[in-house]
Specification:
- There is one protein chain.
- With 470 residues, this protein is of the alpha/beta class.
- Helix content is 45%, strand content 13%.
- It is built from 20 helices and 12 strands.
- Strands 6, 7, 8, 9, 10 and 12 form a 6-stranded mixed sheet that branches. Strands 3-11-5-4 form a 4-stranded antiparallel sheet, with helices on both faces.
- The chain starts with a helix and ends with a helix.
């Protein structure tokens, strides 16, 4: 855990100064309105029994596992944990709806400093909780003055996941158009492009439908591109503005962006689109689960996603991918010096406890999180969830053992590369991301030019930042 701690002390030091962040997005306005309308109904239930708490889950891919956790916790304590899971891409919308109800979530999740700004009226001070005391590096938490209002629960990583069995099959071909002989030798975009395009041309020989899984651009399913892929060009843009600062804090200070590395984003996005299992015009109907199923069934060699995806792959009916063949490579985009670039590692989701519910329910919620991250049974569940937990209650032997989490830990411990910080916590709003995703779909379908996409990104950033500061 010491290595986990050292990586993120510098990367998220800006959260120590979160009290300086005073912007309020349009979501904040909605949240404040919801606060006033819901306060009376929730006050009336303040004295209700704490025998039931309500956890609003962010991750659909692990909903079943949280239900199993809730069942075990009730057996042990008698406390019911109601688990509700928001559909992919709808968490903020679901939270707005649920938080206004008399039976509101007692535990919910906020997305970094922007998320805290939206929901600060509902965030209880967690500075005296056991969970906060376990945090390996206290400056990972979201703080406001002397209070602690969000606690990160997982360090995660993402990149290009590849099936090494298919890659080895390609590298064994006598007529391959590349001099590299293994996936580990791919160190930059030019090499990746050469390998991918040659594999696509030889897809029948390799027994695949395409190199990359479908680029899911269905509304609510496009976060891998408008958030995770977009992270890379903005990481580099903000790093250039202040090499010594955290890129989230730098990004939060930007009222406008240049989108300087839009050509690099286009490089890899076009590679995905043009060497895929799916025609570009059909991508508006594709989900993340569709693309992960293609990977699990051995129909494709690569897919961009994170360590959390192993749960989907391993549980897929008909899965043919062996765990030892599932590996990560960085998302190369053609940046200068990217031979030393690692995968994207960070944290974005933070537990918050609803300050509007009764003190009894707040305490019961804190007790549940304490059990989950400190008890033997709870920690076993966390490992099964694939969470690399940033708490001192976990020994090295209690870390997740699935191949993607192990790969994240391996990349994290490399001394010869610089892993990419999660910078998208600085993106001004969900609307910014949704608009970006919609434009990417229009581009993929040939209805917008790339210049249209770039201009929209810059204009939407500017307008959303102006709205948040008004």
């Amino acid at each position: 855990m010491k290595k986990v701690k050292s990586v993120f002390v510098s990367a998220l030091a800006m959260l120590m100064a979160i009290s300086a962040f005073t912007g309020c997005t349009s979501s904040s306005t909605n949240a404040s309105s919801a606060a006033s309308s819901a306060a009376a109904s929730q006050e009336s239930s303040a004295a209700s029994s704490a025998k039931e708490i309500y956890f609003l889950n962010f991750k659909p891919e692990i909903a079943d596992k949280y239900t199993a956790i809730a069942d075990e916790y009730k057996q042990k304590t008698g406390v019911t944990v109601k688990v509700v899971t928001a559909a992919s891409g709808t968490y903020e919308q679901t939270l707005k709806s649920e938080i206004a109800k008399a039976d509101a979530p007692t535990i919910f999740q906020i997305n970094g400093p922007v998320g805290y700004s939206n929901w600060k009226d509902y965030c209880a001070d967690l500075s005296n909780t056991k969970l906060y005391s376990y945090l390996s590096a206290k400056n990972l938490a979201i703080k406001d003055g002397d209070g602690v209002y969000g606690i990160p629960y997982a360090i995660e990583g993402y990149g290009i996941i590849y099936n090494d069995a298919i890659m080895k099959k390609y590298f064994a071909l006598s007529d391959k158009k590349t001099t590299v002989s293994s996936a580990e030798e791919i160190k930059n975009f030019d090499t990746l492009k050469t390998v991918v395009e040659d594999m696509q041309a030889k897809k029948d020989k390799l027994g695949i439908k395409g190199v990359f899984a479908a680029t899911s651009l269905k509304k609510g399913e496009d976060w891998r591109w408008q958030t995770h892929l977009a992270n890379i060009p903005f990481y580099y843009e903000f790093k250039e503005k202040d090499a010594n600062a955290n890129t989230i804090s730098t990004g939060l200070a930007q009222s406008e962006v240049e989108f300087k590395y839009a050509p690099n984003f286009k490089n890899i996005f076009d590679l995905y689109l043009n060497n895929s299992s799916t025609d570009k015009k059909l991508l508006g109907s594709k989900s993340v689960n569709d693309s992960m199923a293609e990977f699990a069934l051995g129909q494709v060699a690569m897919v961009q996603n994170g360590d959390w995806a192993w749960a989907t792959v391993s549980s897929q009916k008909g899965n043919v991918v062996k765990s030892e063949d599932v590996k990560f490579m960085p998302i190369y985009t053609g940046m200068s010096g990217e031979e030393k670039q690692g995968i994207c590692i960070g944290t974005e989701n933070y537990f918050a406890i609803n300050s509007k519910v009764s003190k009894e329910k707040q305490d019961a919620s804190a007790d549940f999180l304490d059990w989950l991250f400190s008890s033997t049974e709870g920690k076993k569940h966390i490992a099964e969830l694939g969470f690399i937990a940033p708490f001192n209650t976990f020994s090295d032997s209690e870390m997740p053992t699935d191949p993607l989490c192990k790969a994240v830990l391996t990349w994290q411990n490399k001394t010869d590369v610089t892993n990419v910080e999660w910078t998208f916590g600085s993106f001004p709003s969900q609307n910014f991301k949704d608009t970006f995703g919609a434009d990417l779909l229009q581009y993929a379908q040939g209805n917008e030019t790339w210049e249209d996409v770039v201009n929209s990104v810059k204009d939407t950033w500017k307008s959303e930042k102006a709205n948040s500061n008004s």
